[in-house]
Hints:
Blueprint: H1 2-7, E1 10-11, H2 12-17, H3 27-39, E2 43-49, E3 52-57, H4 61-74, H5 81-89, H6 95-111
Antiparallel strand pairs: 1-3, 2-3
Amino acid sequence: MEALWTHGALSVREVQEQFPEEGRPAYTTVQTMIYRLEAKKAVRRAKKISNAHIFEAVVTRQASQGRLIDELLRHFGGRMQPVMAHLIETGNLTLEDVQEAERLLRETTVKQAPGNLAPRTRKPS
């Protein structure tokens, strides 16, 4: 998905070539992954050039990340604290990350203040 989000529509071969040469998956492995993503409606065939199908992302990076994070939080009963604690303990959450999160939280709170548009809500799972 990263290759399609970054580079736009690509053939299976072009997606495969986006992987580092060392440890690059076989063409058929990438083809299988793309076909599975197509079956899940995450990618679609945009066009065909000769024998090569060109695929493009249907699901945005933001939508995919949101779905993944929501699914992760369900494993913790919807609680963010265990996830945050783990990120802090492993050094994967920096002070800058926390400050950015605080800024976003303040912006969201201002948007949700009385007189503003309806608050943004998380989609039910």
